[in-house]
Design a protein that fits this description.
The complex is a heterotrimer of chains A (242), B (262) and C (321). Chain B has 262 residues and is mostly helical. In chain B, 77% of the residues lie in helices and 0% in strands. In chain B, helix 1 crosses helix 4 and helix 1 crosses helix 6. In chain C, strand 9 and strand 10 form a beta hairpin. Classes of the chains: A mainly alpha (242), B mainly alpha (262), C alpha/beta (321).
């Protein structure tokens, strides 16, 4: 966790990148003459930030461990890899919360975007539910990184498609129908939904539940995956190749 | 002279292959093709969602900008990456011209940038509502060449700093994202506050993208020649700056022994 | 005029400590090094780690600018005429890095051949010859990332010779290489001199310097403390003798008493498992009895008297400085 904080690149990804994306979103909304979309986008941009830092964190953590040569040690060490990776992933998702706050603050300071929560209590539940479920999705993705060195390239690529399909900055109604089911199984869809509904006034209940359900599913999948991949990685000797 | 050219062409290509780690298909497709494609789609849909600009606006802007995958990231890796392989010492011990060495790597990156941009334009044409004016293609190609060259020159400066810093991505990543905001890629310059659009005018891509948009809408090459010329000039300035930085860093490393410090 | 000439070379590093209140420290790594290497010589720069060998060699190959002093290689000043120097020298340093891992050995050589302006017509032939010379023929198409340490080292050497330079600098070439590989490397180095090249070698292995070099300069803490042929250096200590005394538990006052004995040049204490060995360098007279007296009270094991070796000479020189 500390290693991540020290990486200036990580700081950039978690803090500055979402602000840049948010700024682009805000200007776009302004240009489109739909100022009420601003708060909608502000939350979306913040969630984008959470997702970016989660993705970078999980992928980065594994790559770093591999590079530092500690990946093999971790796999060999007594507690299962899962127990080590889970808190790490959740930690990075938590850092993502900073980016959400930063984005909202940014929007409020520079673009006069009002910040008021329609259902504050639900918001307080929705936020951690969303963050945790996203963190666990990050974990699942990180599980594949254990085996594949090329993971980082893939993780770079995932930011935009997931932002598209999960409707972070704009509704998925704009996208062709076949993309919708993809979004349904991805945590960010429900996370942003839950957070937005509780902020803007709607019913986030369903979304919150789905976040938790998906999160649980990810954990199960991830631990199975990790076990299979650990064995495979040892067979293929890809653990140590930096 | 002959050896200068050989270092530039042959050497540049070998070094590019040695350092650019996204050449393998497993890397290449996600990073150089899929990522740009999704970027274009993302911003086009963003614009659609609030009725901000036309698809064409986003396609031209982003298809040109994604050349920065090679122009900025590629240059950061193929120059800044020397620090990682610790081959800077052996390089500097040779009598070869530094200009030939570093400029030689810009060429493959330039070509790569053109490929990525062209792919981006095709994506826009096929998947979005982008229809360049008939007959505008040659002019677009020329504008693209100038703009990608200027972006690569900018990337050379970034790469030079990558030699000095611990992580070449430290500068490259922010640069890539700031381009999205500043260069008129996704936000029309008119909407930006003055101080920002002023910065934009000193960055690569800004003028080229503006020219490309006009030409795609049917304007003649002649009418945008001023913009294209400015883009070329900006690129030249960055190239000169990059060369000066590289020479400065080399001299400084000889004086202060910073060459191999990670 | 020597092929390599160093005159009062000095190099100071400024290091800073601390994050907030940075303190600058000036470290003098090289303090007035002067020597000359003649054509066709294999000259050794011998010294412990941190003595300033690598810094000195870096100044000579133009990668570092001396803080003061001058150096010339083949008549060209290393600061003012850097490019001319670079054209004429080859440099090989030890280490795992310094090569493009993703490329094959052959591609690495081709790249540097271009940088050294090896005529294209000759390139293939020379690369082939060099691969044979260093024993990598047949492995050149493999990626360097799969090379062993010794193989990388050999590739480094091949790279240093691409443009057939008359002067070759080798910085600790056999460090980290297995004994068999190291022996082959040394044979290759000797061949270079036979072929008429001038070679400057840095090392901290005594026997390597003894075996290979025509002349040696011993460098310690940035200064040259002795210079001459291996025989010369041994001669410095040969009129003396070495008495090795094994003791169990010796204290500093006892060692000081030994040092005070007339005829004792130096006393070194070397830990060896549960005991210590006192290595006493004498000026040749019979001292064994005199040495044992101050040790009364300590447990003494084996005592042996022998001829001094180059290693003793080296140790004495380094310790004195």
């Amino acid at each position: 966790m500390k290693q991540l904080m020290r990486s200036a690149l990580f700081v950039f990804t978690s803090l500055i990148e979402p602000l840049i994306m948010a700024t682009i979103a805000f200007y776009t909304a302004k240009a489109g003459g739909k100022p009420e979309a601003l708060f909608y986008m502000a939350i979306g941009a913040g969630v984008m930030g959470i997702w970016s830092s989660t993705l970078f964190g999980s992928g980065g953590v594994i790559s770093w461990q591999r590079w530092e040569g500690t990946l093999e040690l971790l796999v060999a060490s007594p507690p299962p890899l899962l127990v080590i990776v889970v808190p790490l992933t959740i930690a990075t998702a938590t850092i993502g919360i900073y980016s959400l706050s930063a984005t909202l603050l940014w929007g409020w300071l520079l673009f006069d975007i009002p910040f008021h929560l329609a259902h504050p209590l639900l918001f307080v539940i929705a936020l951690p539910a969303g963050v945790i479920s996203m963190g666990l999705l990050g974990l699942l993705i990180a599980a594949t990184f254990v085996l594949y060195r090329e993971a980082n390239a893939l993780s770079n690529m995932l930011e935009f498609p997931i932002a598209l399909v999960t409707g972070l900055l704009f509704t998925t109604a704009l996208l062709p129908d076949w993309t919708h089911p993809i979004g349904w199984v991805l945590a960010p869809t429900w996370a942003v939904n839950a957070i937005r509904e509780s902020a803007l006034g709607g019913s986030p209940g369903m979304a919150i539940v789905l976040c938790l359900v998906l999160g649980a599913a990810y954990v199960v999948l991830a631990s199975w995956f990790l076990r299979v991949l650990e064995v495979k990685a040892r067979e293929k000797a890809t653990l140590s190749l930096a | 002279m002959r050896s200068w050219l050989r270092v530039f062409f042959v050497g540049g290509l070998i070094a590019y292959r040695g350092l650019f780690n996204w050449l393998r298909p497993a890397h290449y497709f996600p990073t150089m093709l899929a990522h740009p494609m999704f970027q274009i789609l993302f911003f086009a849909y963003l614009g659609r969602s609030v009725n901000a600009q036309s698809d064409a606006f986003y396609v031209v802007g982003n298809a040109v900008q994604v050349s920065a995958m090679a122009g900025v990231y590629g240059m950061a890796i193929t120059i800044g990456g020397e620090r990682w392989t610790q081959t800077l010492g052996p390089l500097m011990a040779t009598p070869a011209s530094r200009l030939a060495i570093f400029l030689g790597r810009a060429l493959p990156n330039l070509v790569q940038g053109l490929i990525v941009s062209t792919f981006g334009f095709c994506v826009g044409r096929l998947l979005l509502d982008f229809h360049p004016a008939p007959g505008s293609l040659p002019a677009l190609a020329l504008i693209l060449l100038t703009t990608v060259a200027s972006c690569t020159a900018f990337g050379m400066v970034i790469g030079a700093f990558g030699l000095r810093l611990r992580d070449s991505f430290l500068v490259a990543n922010p640069a890539y994202f700031l381009m999205l905001l500043f260069c008129g890629v996704n936000v029309p310059l008119a909407v930006l506050p003055t101080w920002m659009s002023t910065i934009s005018s000193y960055l690569p891509l800004t003028h080229g993208i503006a020219a490309a948009r006009e030409v795609a809408a049917g304007a003649s090459l002649g009418s945008v020649s001023g913009l294209v010329g400015t883009e070329a000039l900006i690129g030249l300035c960055y190239a000169v700056a990059a060369y000066l930085f590289l020479r400065f860093f080399e001299e400084e490393s000889r004086r202060r022994a910073t060459l191999d410090r990670m | 005029m020597g092929v390599i000439e160093a005159h009062e070379l000095r190099r100071t590093y400024r290091t800073s400590t601390g994050t907030f209140r940075r303190k600058s420290l000036d470290v003098e790594a090289v303090r007035g090094v002067t020597f000359a290497v003649e054509s066709g010589e294999l000259f050794g720069l011998l010294g412990p780690n941190g003595a300033g060998k690598t810094t000195t060699i870096k100044m000579l190959i133009t990668l570092l600018i001396p803080t003061s002093g001058t150096a010339r290689v083949l008549g060209h000043d290393v600061v003012k005429d850097a490019r001319e120097v670079r054209r004429r020298i080859g440099y090989v340093f030890g280490g795992d890095r310094g090569l493009y891992d993703r490329l094959s050995g052959l591609d690495n050589l081709r790249y540097f051949a271009e940088l050294y302006a090896v005529p294209p017509r000759e390139m293939r032939r020379r690369i082939g010859e060099l691969l044979d010379l260093v024993g990598l023929a047949g492995r050149e198409n493999e990626r360097v990332e799969g090379y062993s340490r010794g193989m990388r080292q050999r590739l480094h050497i091949a790279r240093g010779l691409l443009h057939d330079p008359p002067v070759v600098f080798l910085d600790e070439p056999t460090i980290g290489v297995d004994p068999v590989g190291a022996r082959e490397l040394r044979a290759t180095i000797a061949q270079l001199v036979e072929a008429g090249k001038t070679v400057l070698l840095t090392t901290h292995y005594m026997f390597e310097a003894d075996q290979l070099c025509n002349r040696i300069a011993v460098i310690s803490q940035g200064e040259i403390v002795a210079e001459g042929t291996p025989a010369d250096l041994k001669a410095n200590v040969s009129e003396g003798g070495v008495v090795e005394i094994e003791v169990f538990g010796i204290d500093e006052p006892a060692v000081q008493r030994l040092r005070a004995i007339e005829g004792v040049r130096s006393v070194g204490v070397e830990p060896r498992e549960q005991a210590q060995v006192l290595v006493v360098q004498t000026d040749g007279r019979e001292l064994t009895h005199a040495l044992l007296v101050p040790l009364d009270g300590a447990q003494v094991g084996r005592v042996s008297v022998r001829e001094p070796t180059l290693e003793d000479a080296y140790v004495a020189l380094v310790r004195e400085s």
